[in-house]
């Protein structure tokens, strides 16, 4: 079995569509489709990313698991569920850590940008909450929650303008509704969160350098 066919078999064994895997990778469906077809032409980093998105090991993609006696679909589903539990635990604990940064550094550091991202032509409406810290002229986005919403539920749909729209100081109720939704049941909804570990590390490095 060649590499593209093995990736496809694992994905279909998990009942995942290409669009779902693409969303987990943060790329569009057409790009993921090209990745899946390229097989051996992919870089190791790209193959590792696909493995993580599918919840399997890199060796499973490269060499397969034909020697495993269990039904292939059940096997990969179990691995995926275990991987999802691990991811949920990590996201939950990292967010708790981010929320504790003010206490850790003994000053107000964590800020929130709350609003919606609209693409009316594509009928795409997303609510978002962004956690970020500022140090001098640098802005570090640490984590972002993003969830699809209906046009009828959007607070900015009447603007008919694509792009990001933020709630201002006169709209605390709407902003708090999204924040409450973002931080409720994190482990069950961890896939709505994206943690930027590079920025998190960079922020603390800069903060401690500044404090010297």
Outline of the structure:
With 212 residues, the chain is of the alpha+beta class. The chain has 9 helices and 5 strands, in the order H-H-H-H-H-H-H-E-E-E-E-H-E-H.
Low-confidence stretches: none
Gyration radius from CA atoms, angstroms: 20 Å
Distance between the termini: 57 Å
Number of domains: 2
For the largest beta-sheet, the strand count, sense and barrel status come to: 5 strands, antiparallel
Q: What share of the residues does DSSP label as strand, in percent?
A: 15-25%
Shape: globular
Task: Going across the biggest sheet, name each strand in turn.
Answer: 4-1-2-3-5
The portion of residues assigned to helices is: 40-55%
Structural classification? alpha+beta
Mean pLDDT across the residues is 85
Order of helices and strands: HHHHHHHEEEEHEH
Number of helices: 9
Number of strands: 5
Organism: Microscilla marina ATCC 23134
Pfam family, one: HTH_3
Protein name: Bacteriophage CI repressor protein, putative
Domain HTH cro/C1-type: 7-61
